[in-house]
Design brief:
644 residues, mainly alpha, Na+/H+ antiporter like fold, 2 domains, 4-stranded antiparallel beta sheet, 4 strands
């Protein structure tokens, strides 16, 4: 009963902190950390200890999985270089430097144990992402921080495990550490990919969104647990499964499943994040009590924590500054290369289009000769036009993706201002606390090291978290903004063309007795349906031609009166928003609405495929595509709901 009361009170505290954070402008994690610490020091509250395996195996996999599902995979691919530097290079470098300094500050601490402590203090926490996103910084900064948070945990845990092994047995070498890291990552990549693909195939056959959500809750554990048993990184496996789910889910899962899963996962994410910081605050008193009774004392722990915390920021700055300079040089070099080959690229794209139409042979790739030689050999082996056209489309898509990447880098460059935010947003938190508690109890000065880790995490979250808004105001980095009108018009044009393609297919497949079906386009995704006052909220205005009611395929005498259709010349324009509204109205006949409903669904699904293809090539910003996809999802949910 006591445990149940604590759970209820903790859940209410998490909800209250989340609600309060919007009013006072402080992250919920900081409120829970402060509140948990205050409660933990009350005399009638016993010392609380949380098994670190609960955090590492029960809390972190779903948290990382949820973040990976929501991240833009095209942006993650673009930022893979800075993410790799921060997640793979920075962590062991920080562990080594911090470890060397700790050997000088803590008597009797060997280098191996000190490096283990450095590894504990190296990974960043995801709370910085929520703070930075709330401040409105550019999407590039958010993507770099998200990618780093997804991958640096595995690096830190591998370094920690190797350092502990070296401290206890003395039999660990640099080659062994690198080999162990490579094995952990490769196993995690394989298991995560397999679980992600298999889970999507299973979930695509589930008809109930609630059941699908329940199954999705098991995916991070299905990836993490086998990977751990195979000596891989369970956290990286959960991340890979999340990336696969986020990238492939829109093509394989119904909209109702994805909307329900996304809402429920946000609830889980909120609860688990809050639980970590609340328990962290509650544990603080017990650790302080133990260190106070030890020989080193609390004052030394505070001094060591200040030095270690400062080192994490300094080392991060020393790595981020040259990294951004190299990225800037790389982008400039790519841009020059693209400009030099601009005419050849344009001709290449035209030739690829001609190949798809069967009017030309395969052109050379403007800049990439060796891969092209392999393509040429495969093309000579091809025996049909479909195979050659497929390869031409693939190469053309690759060129468009390269151009879109350059536009992305040019639109949101990472300079010194953005670098300052990336450095200061590298806060320590839940991973540091959980990793510290995995140290063997026989570790020299165990309680002292645990208190140092907690002080670094708490100080980092408090100082950097509270001052990050001020830094953003002073540094003035690139900020996220609404999509420009040019991109908005391009997305609308994409939707219109997708609708026309469906119309072409329907026209060619129509029987001679039926009037042709022509999709005339789509309206602004932000616009409401202006055809009728019965338009459903949240649905876009989309136009589609239905068969003329005079040609033996009448859609009912009242459809035009109620705004479901309107005449435009010889065409009859159908409003999916009004059709969706009528679909739930018991006064309408199901068979009367079915033809219009099917036409609207065909158009919506074609538009979704077009948006996803554009997303794979990186032609538009992730926010614009997500907004348009969400609109289409809600349209389809209404049109596929049970009638009446």
């Amino acid at each position: 009963m006591d445990l149940l009361i604590i759970a209820v009170l903790g859940t209410l505290a998490i909800a209250a902190a989340s609600q309060l954070s919007d009013r006072i402008g402080v992250a919920p994690a900081l409120i829970l950390l402060a509140g948990g610490t205050a409660v933990g020091f009350l005399p009638f509250i016993p010392a609380i200890e949380l098994d670190p395996q609960v955090v590492l195996e029960g809390i972190l996999p779903p948290l990382l999985f949820s973040t990976a599902v929501s991240i833009s995979t095209i942006n993650f691919r673009r930022e893979l270089a800075p993410v790799a530097v921060l997640a793979i290079l920075l962590v062991p470098l920080s562990a080594a430097v911090i470890g060397a300094v700790l050997t000088l500050l803590i008597p009797g601490l060997s280098l191996a144990w000190a490096i283990a402590m450095g590894a504990i203090l190296s990974p960043t926490d995801a709370v910085a992402i929520s703070i930075a996103r709330r401040l409105g910084v550019s999407q590039r900064i958010i993507t770099v921080l998200e990618g780093e948070g997804l991958l640096n945990d595995a690096t830190a845990l591998v370094v920690l495990s190797s350092a502990v092994s070296a401290a206890t047995s003395g039999g660990v070498s640099v080659g062994g550490v690198l080999g162990g890291f490579a094995l952990a990552v490769l196993v995690a990549l394989g298991v995560g990919w397999l679980v992600g693909e298999a889970s999507l195939r299973v979930r695509s056959h589930i008809t109930d969104p609630t059941v699908d959500t329940v199954v999705s809750f098991t995916v991070p554990f299905l990836a993490a647990l086998p990977a751990e048993h195979m000596h891989g990184s369970g956290l990286v496996a959960a991340v890979v499964a999340g990336l696969i789910t986020g990238h492939r889910g829109p093509r394989m899962l119904p909209p109702a499943h994805r909307v329900a899963s996304r809402t429920n996962w946000h609830t889980v994410e909120l609860t688990l994040e809050g639980l970590i910081f609340l328990v962290m605050g509650l544990e603080f008193f017990g650790v302080v009590e133990k260190v106070g009774a030890s020989a080193l004392g609390i004052v030394r722990a505070i001094a060591v924590a200040v030095v270690a915390g400062a080192l994490t920021v300094v080392i991060r700055a020393l790595v981020v500054a040259p990294m951004l300079k190299l990225l800037s040089h790389r982008t400039a070099r790519w841009a020059i290369h693209w400009q030099e080959n601009e005419e050849a690229i344009h001709q290449f794209q035209n030739r690829c289009s001609a190949i798809v139409r069967g009017e030309s042979e395969m052109p050379p790739v403007p800049w990439d000769r060796r891969p092209f030689a392999q393509v040429q050999r495969k093309l000579r082996q091809a025996t049909n036009h479909e195979s050659i056209a497929r390869r031409a489309r693939s190469l053309s898509s690759r060129v468009r993706r390269r151009g879109a990447d350059l536009d992305y880098f040019a639109a949101e460059p990472l300079g010194r201002r953005e670098g300052a935010v990336i450095v200061w947003a590298g806060m320590r938190g839940a991973i540091t606390l959980a990793a510290a508690q995995t140290l063997p109890v026989t570790t020299p000065h165990y309680s002292f090291l645990l208190l140092v880790a907690m002080l670094v995490a708490a100080g980092s979250l408090t100082i950097q978290g509270l001052t990050l808004p001020a830094l953003v105001c002073v540094a003035r980095p690139a900020m996220a903004g609404p999509a420009d009108e040019e991109e908005k018009a391009a997305v609308i044009s994409l939707l219109v063309n997708a609708a026309r393609d469906v119309a072409s297919i329907d026209t060619h497949g129509a029987s001679q007795q039926a009037a042709p079906t022509v999709l005339t386009g789509a309206a602004d995704p932000d616009a409401s349906d202006t055809h009728t006052a019965t338009s459903a909220p949240g649905l876009d205005k989309v136009s589609q031609t239905a068969p003329d009611p005079e040609n033996n395929e009448s859609l009912g005498p009242t459809t035009e009166q109620h705004g479901l259709v309107r005449r435009q010349g010889k065409d009859v324009i159908v409003s999916p928003a009004a059709v969706a509204k009528a679909w739930a109205d018991p006064t309408w006949r199901h068979d009367e609405l079915a033809p219009m409903r099917e036409r609207a669904l065909d158009m919506i699904r074609a538009q979704r495929e077009a948006l996803l293809d554009a997303g794979d090539e990186g032609l538009y910003s992730a926010d614009s595509l997500e907004h348009a996809l969400n609109r289409l999802d809600y349209q389809e949910i209404m049109l596929t709901s049970d009638p009446h």
